[in-house]
Design brief:
The chain is of the alpha+beta class and 428 residues long. The protein has 3 domains: 2-101 and 129-189, no CATH class; 206-379, Roll (Thiol Ester Dehydrase, Chain A); 381-428, no CATH class. 28% of the residues lie in helices and 25% in strands. It has helices at 2-7, 29-43, 102-109, 116-127, 154-169, 205-215, 249-265, 277-280, 359-365, 384-387, 410-427; strands at residues 13-17, 21-26, 47-52, 64-65, 75-76, 78-89, 134-142, 148-149, 177-185, 219-220, 228-233, 285-295, 309-318, 322-330, 336-348, 353-354. The strands form 3 sheets. Strands 1, 2, 3, 4, 6, 7 and 9 form a 7-stranded antiparallel sheet that branches. Strands 10, 11, 12, 13, 14, 15 and 16 form a 7-stranded antiparallel sheet that branches. Strands 5-8 form a two-stranded antiparallel sheet. A hairpin with a 5-residue loop joins strand 14 (322-330) and strand 15. The structure holds zinc ion. The site of zinc ion has 6 residues, from loops. GO terms for molecular function: DNA-binding transcription factor activity.
Length: 428
């Protein structure tokens, strides 16, 4: 598996490799996530969280010896396990079988007349084939000052261990270090499904979208990183120019939106997507809380060449549960045509409530902010004289095409506002 080793990032230091597993050490959480993502990509497998133990600060932890020199090569060192995690192959343990009554089983023998919902359910459960492959990691605290050679005698180890215990009990400085011990299961551990073919074949909707966008000449500049992304855009389509000879507001809104989606789903030269939003969205959903668009006059100047466009993304503001992204669209003349600020909230899909951004993520992106404040747009109510009919009042129904996945898309609100504004101005 030499090729696999090469495809893993340098932050993963190998300690052991067998036919079924590669073991290694990783220094921090961020590198752990990067290694796991690289491993899944390289082996075309995916793993889902099965069990994570939470660290219990109140409970005294057992001090163990690392026996194989996996934490410090050639040495054993005392350590405690702070957290451990098991992830199963996505083709892993089967779900508990459904209890099927005889009437239902008759029903299921009928030719496929089921509703869409039942078909989706069947597809989901058929993916689980009981594959036993598991990925493990544990977060450990170790004490390098108390290490011993691998062949140290039992009495020497006991002496060293009691020295450590005394130092811990009396609050003496013990200079602990932390790391993650990771066990990555190799393709032969997978069973009942084909690792290289079956898991690689189905193209996700997201992958399909990105492939389509690339095919329309939208691409991430190779210099892009997770801190600063640049998307090369072929320019506004001809139908974006309205009957007054101006680029329509919605075409500018959609252009910024598509470019941002490319930056947030394509890996730059550091192997990461912009602000690692692809990883943030794993197990979460994101919600656009507020957007601000500043269109500059150069957008309306016919003399200004409008292709190709450079769309740059920078880290706006990083808060506890939300962050903002600043998107600038620059013309070949160097003039900025549009600046957008988007305030994005991370949502727990179960509670549908805002949830905290990961600490390591906030520590990483927090210092890169270009804005001091989050973008907050106060809630507004219609003026009283509009609701009683003294002023023009615009009523509308949200159409299917205004929504994405049962939710009104944030760009639709801009269109709703414009649709209300222009007739209102005409009526006075
Ligand atoms: Zn598997």
């Amino acid at each position: 598996m030499a090729n696999l080793r090469e495809s893993l990032p340098s932050c993963f230091s190998f300690t052991e490799e067998t036919d079924s597993v590669i073991t290694g050490i990783i220094s921090d959480e961020e590198n752990l996530q990067e290694t796991l993502a690289c491993f899944e990509r390289a082996t075309r497998t995916s793993f889902v969280s099965w069990h994570t133990s939470l660290s219990e600060k109140s409970k005294p932890k057992r001090v163990l010896w690392s026996q194989q020199g996996e934490i410090i090569p050639g040495c054993m060192v005392p350590y405690t396990v702070d957290q451990s995690c098991v992830r199963c192959c996505s083709f892993g343990p089967k779900r508990p079988p459904k209890t099927v009554s005889s009437a239902e089983s008759d029903e299921s023998n009928k030719p496929s007349e089921g509703t869409g919902l039942q078909e989706t359910d069947a597809k989901k459960s058929s993916k689980k084939v009981g594959c036993p492959a598991k990925l493990y990691w544990k977060k450990v605290t170790y004490y390098p000052d108390y290490d011993q050679l691998l062949d140290a005698s039992r009495s020497l180890k006991e002496l060293q261990m009691s020295r450590l215990k005394d130092d811990l009990d009396f609050g003496n400085p013990v200079s602990p270090s932390q790391c993650f011990i990771v066990e990555l299961p190799l393709p032969p551990t997978h069973q009942f499904h084909n690792v290289s073919v079956q898991t690689a074949q189905p193209q996700s909707v997201q992958e399909r979208r990105m492939a389509q966008l690339t095919s329309t000449n939208l691409s991430l500049d190779p210099s892009s990183t997770c801190h600063h992304a640049k998307v090369i855009h072929p320019g506004l389509p001809p139908q974006a120019i309205d009957r007054f000879g101006n680029p329509s507001t919605m075409s500018l809104v959609m252009l910024a939106r598509m470019a941002r989606q490319v930056a947030m789903a394509t890996r730059g030269h550091d192997g990461r997507c912009f602000m690692e939003t692809d990883r943030l969205r794993e197990g979460h959903i994101t919600f656009m809380a507020a957007s601000q668009y500043n269109i500059n006059s150069c957008a309306y100047e016919p003399e200004e060449n409008k292709y190709p466009l450079h769309v740059t993304l920078t880290v706006g503001h990083v808060g506890r549960t939300s962050f903002s992204v600043v998107t600038d669209i620059t013309l070949p003349s160097g003039h900025v045509m549009l600046t957008v600020i988007n305030q994005i909230i991370l949502i727990d899909p179960t509670t549908r409530r805002p949830t905290q951004l990961p600490d390591h993520w906030r520590e990483h992106y927090g210092p890169l902010c270009v804005r001091k404040q989050p973008l907050i747009v106060p809630k507004q109510s219609p003026p009283d004289n509009a609701t009683i009919g003294d002023l023009p009042y615009h009523r509308m129904t949200v159409a299917w095409s205004d929504t994405d996945d049962q939710h009104t898309n944030y760009t639709s609100y801009i269109r709703f506002a414009l649709d209300a504004l222009y007739p209102g101005l005409r009526k006075g």
